[in-house]
Amino acid sequence: MKDVSIWWWNFAVLLLLLLGSQLTPSIQPTKQEATSNKSGPLYKEKQFTWETKVLLTGLDIPWDLAQLPDGGLLITERTGKLKLWDTKTVQTVAELPVATVSESGLTGIALHPKFPENHWLYLYYTYRTGGELKNKVVRYVFENNKLTENKTILDGLAGGQIHNGGRLRFGPDDLLYVLTGDAARPALAQDPKRLEGKILRLKDDGSVPDDNPTKGSLVYTLGHRNPQGLTWHSLTEEMYATEHGETANDELNAIQPGQNYGWPTAKRGALDHTGFVAPLLGSGDETWAPSGIDFVGLKIWELRYTAIFAGLRSQKLQKIEIIDGKIASQEVLIDKTYGRLRAVLAKGDGSVYVTTSNRDGRTNPQADDDRLLIVTPVEKN
Predict the structure, then answer these.
(1) Yes or no: domain 47-379 corresponds to CATH 3.90.420.10
(2) 163 catalytic per annotation
(3) Would you kindly state where each structural domain of the chain is located, as residue ranges?
(4) Taking the model in full, what pTM does it have?
(5) Which helix (H) or strand (E) holds 231?
(6) At a CB cut-off of 8 Å and minimum separation 6, what does 133 contact?
(7) Per residue in 277-325, pLDDT tens?
(8) Alpha-carbon span 138 to 140, nearest angstrom
(9) pLDDT tens digits, one per residue of 44-92
(10) Of 163, 224, 233, 244, which is the active-site residue?
(11) What does residue 47 show for φ and ψ, rounded to 5 degrees?
(12) 291: phi then psi, degrees, rounded to nearest 5
């Protein structure tokens, strides 16, 4: 009888162990954990090629893009026209009194984070007053495909034939960031009391946020020559900006509040002075003339680290991955196929809109220039 009891006891223990192994939840890494080491065996990421398609032709120096809630695109043309593409037809919805001299004119555009409710749209452009070129940012109401009410929220920025900056973007903090160039007056970039050669940070009415690096100042960073593109990491919300260097030495910078990026004291990538931030990525002796940049978003998980930026002089569209604040990969997607490339805007599905800039006097345009392109990731078989 004792042997039978022992047998039943052992059987019961074994049964409990077997049941426990089935009932206890398996501890598995999350997808982010599994892919933190891209060579790890736990999760095999998809691979992509990139295909380019022409969506629009006949544009005139398109400079920036903004996507409307219904999927339509607003397109600024440096000559002063604001155009609307509803994915089928394109129409001019406004024409602004801009000064178009060399690189100046209508440039940046941004929609307010609450655009569906307030219909606020922001434009950056160059104008002439008293024989001088100036830049300003104006807030409009955009309804029924028309610009109506307007309020100037930033004015009096020194303008020039070159180096006007011009990109506008709202950040994850719902504040407006404005890129300004040095207007070909390099000393302005190091003057903390001037707004040129800077990245500025504004409330939506143009006032100074309470937590800006310097109390009462719109200046967020200084020491910029001609910044052209601005974006935030899809995962970390870290800020990155592209900038034209002097005689090559173009830059992609990781932007930190209150920092100094060196121009013009530190030239040609030689940041041998203390207190300046070195570029995250530089072009070296090659000239990119980088312009628009955007992270593609989180719709396709494998592209969560991916940003794409355009080159004017290089005529290249480059894809990079930024992981843990470092460049993890770099690849050319387009190389001189469409000429000079300027604006980049993520569509939200992994693809990006890109514009050409072949009618800006720096190259020989084709008959159908300028063009709006879409560059789309396609999964490899």
Answers:
(1) no
(2) yes
(3) 47-379
(4) 0.89
(5) strand 227-232
(6) 99, 101, 104, 126, 127, 158, 159, 160, 161, 183
(7) 999 999 999 999 999 999 999 999 999 999 999 999 999 999 999 999 9
(8) 6
(9) 679 999 999 999 999 999 999 999 999 999 999 999 999 999 999 999 9
(10) 163
(11) -115, 150
(12) -130, -115
